[in-house]
Amino acid sequence: MEGRKAWELDNVDFSYNSAPCLEHISLSLDSGCFYGLLGPNGSGKSTLIDLLSGYLKPDTGAIRLQGQSLHSLKRSELATVLTVVPQRFAFNFDFNVYETVMMGRYPHIPRFSSPTQDDHLRVSESLALLDIDHLAQRSIRKLSGGETQRVMIARALVQDTDFILLDEVTANLDINHAIAIMQTMKALVDKGKTVVAALHDLNMALSFCDQVMVLDGGRLHQHGIAAEVINDELVADIYQVASEVIRVADGSAHLSFKYQ
Amino acid sequence: MNQSLDKNNSSRSSRTSSDGPGILWLFILIGVLGAAMIFSAGLGYIEISPKEIVQIIAAQLGRNLPDSIDASYPFVIMEVRLPRIFTAVLVGGGLAVAGCIFQSLLQNPLADPYTLGISSGAAFGASIAILLLIVGITLPAPLVIPSFAFAGALLTLLAVFSLAAPSTRLSSNSLILSGIIVSAILSAGISLIKFLADEQVNAIIFWLMGSFIGKDWSDVLLLAVLVMPSTVILMLFAREMDIMTFGDRTSESLGIDTGRVRRFVLIIASLSTSGCVAVSGIIGFVGLIVPHFVRMILGPSNRLLIPCSFLCGCLLLLGADTVTRVMLPTEIPIGVLTALIGGPLFCYIFRKTQLQRWR
């Protein structure tokens, strides 16, 4: 996988009801990398995730995945290579956690077939990995926000795709589970998968992402290696907050914010 | 918490997605329905034993009719009671399945087969036909009211879909809203027709309340052609409908073309509903409560929910129709009876599950 292009965006524009949302986005993302998608609220992160997943079509410009036009691919084909964990879900019925995670195997289970032993094993592994195996029989509607988030990540993991899109999935999680999920994603990237995660936590991006893309007001503000892009200047520029980069002995860095 | 997918975790969830109990329910329901249909056929002004009914049905299939059976019984069973029973059963099953589909696909537990205005459309069509008959315009076919009702339902469906269509994915909200708007317009139209019908308004009101009186095999045939294939087709989409309750983003990331599936499945369910309404008038409540009731017992998975709702819908309307036909001194409209029987029962079960939820 490595070395091949994952997504390529050529001059992509998108607007909701003629209100511009993303403008002139050109990007080239490599396979086998962990990308952080940063930017303030309303900067267009979720819209970009929707464009990368093929949920939305750009008004102008082209989006390719592995060299192929994203919208020329059939949905069912796309589902075997690309998954997305959206920011919000609808839970109107009492499916239990196990059933919900099993739905992630849908693209791999032919019509008229039942889940195989392998499908069940993958679901069980994914539940254990996300620390939700004790909730297997619980209704999805009786979970906390963080538990729900982990169920939906487990659902995406059993889909077993090379490309993973995450829209602020750590937002509802406590620090323990947030770190664990980022570590899980990092491990997947090490095995050749490509992850794009919209994030608010700049320190998470610094710790885990190889590269970051920063959106501001619907435009691509910066794109580059996480440690080079994320600094006090960027934070002041984009978020209007004073900060300081603190380097620690092992060479890693983190941001410390200054406020009264 | 484990940190890598490599870890060969053999811990299995206690859950092994077994359909066993669900399949058992299916067989039990099929058995109960068969028995209930034979039992119901025996009840009425002339009481006929289940054994005699089986012998009469066997006689239709070429066996000799025993001499002990009164010569009028075969007519009573084959031409009067069975068509009515089959009509009630098919309408109940069709409406219950359509209810499941509408609730799943519109992601709304309050939806029923009439949410998209099909009932209003059918009622409008039927009212026009009745008004034409009242003013003395004779229409050729004997099925004139059903055909007007069916046409009304289909035209309404078309109107609702084209109103909601600009939303690329045919979103639930725009469909529900379009259904409400079109229904409101049609209701005003029905009121106008009732006003025009003047003293003969009863014919319209009675049709609107639904009935199985005087149904014959042609009604059963129309229903069988619409309801049975739709139910089978809808069962094929059970997995998609399960996933679609989680919203469009999740469904599409799993490879489901939500717009196409929603349109196709809603059209199939609506055709089946239109057939039911055209034959029997508007029977509310079955499509709303049966799926809820079955979901409470068997869970929300459409794979079992659709066939079990079908069978429970059959049983509910068969029961209600038998009560009104046999037990009551005068036949009250079936739609009224389903709400009167099913309503309090549903309230009781709903209350009980709500209490369990908060415990």
Q: Would you spell out the secondary-structure blueprint of this structure?
A:
The complex is a heterodimer of chains A (260) and B (359).
Chain A: E1 5-16, E2 19-30, E3 34-38, H1 45-53, E4 60-65, E5 68-69, H2 75-78, E6 82-85, H3 97-102, H4 117-129, H5 145-158, E7 163-167, H6 175-190, E8 194-198, H7 202-208, E9 211-216, E10 219-225, H8 226-229, H9 232-239, E11 242-247, E12 253-258
Chain B: H1 20-42, H2 50-60, H3 73-105, H4 118-134, H5 144-164, H6 172-197, H7 201-209, H8 217-236, H9 238-244, H10 248-253, H11 258-280, H12 286-298, H13 302-327, H14 334-358
Q: N-to-C terminal Cα separation of chain A, in Å?
A: 47 Å
CATH topology of chain B: ABC transporter involved in vitamin B12 uptake, BtuC
- What structural class do helix, strand and pairing data of chain A support? alpha/beta
Secondary-structure arrangement, i.e. CATH architecture of chain B: Orthogonal Bundle
Residue ranges of chain B: pLDDT <50 for 5 or more in a row?
1-17
Major protein interface: A-B, 61 and 40 residues
* Residue-averaged pLDDT of chain A: 91
Total helices of chain A: the number is 9
Report on the biggest sheet of chain A: 6 strands, mixed
**What does the largest sheet of chain B look like?**
none
Tell me the name of the CATH homologous superfamily of the largest domain in chain A.
Answer: P-loop containing nucleotide triphosphate hydrolases
Helix content of chain B: over 70%
Number of strands of chain B: 0
- What sort of overall outline of chain A do the alpha carbons produce when their principal axes are compared? globular
Instruction: Please name the CATH topology of the largest domain in chain A.
Output: Rossmann fold
